[in-house]
Specification:
The protein is an alpha/beta fold and 100 residues long. 33% of the residues lie in helices and 18% in strands. The radius of gyration is 12 Å and the shape is globular.
Length: 100
């Protein structure tokens, strides 16, 4: 599985790239803020909600520290999706946040 650093992600966000970010943290965690434009799909819901995703797109997976997002990414890769795991997750991310 490919990975990217939070600095690389912030550069893409600053360049207004069209990104597909999936935040797999739990509800109480995303209340503390999400990366702008991210979609919230808790880790446990990934298998049942994978049908909502487009296999022609690349998805950047995010969690608190990078482990759950790697697990979600491995599952999605096994289903034919293109994924990138954000190294260090939200603990390493110091960019802009949005609150839902």
């Amino acid at each position: 599985m490919k990975t990217m650093t939070t600095d690389e992600l912030i550069d893409l966000l600053d360049a207004n790239e069209d990104l597909n970010i999936i935040d797999v943290r739990e509800d109480f965690e995303v209340e503390q803020g999400m990366i702008p434009g991210a979609i919230h799909i808790p880790l446990g819901s990934i298998p049942e909600r994978a049908s909502e995703l487009d296999k022609s797109k690349e998805y950047i997976m995010v969690c608190k520290g990078g482990v759950r997002s790697a697990n979600a990414g491995e599952y999605l890769e096994s289903q034919g999706f293109q994924v990138v795991n954000l190294e260090g997750g939200m603990m390493a991310y110091d960019g802009e946040l949005e609150f839902k």
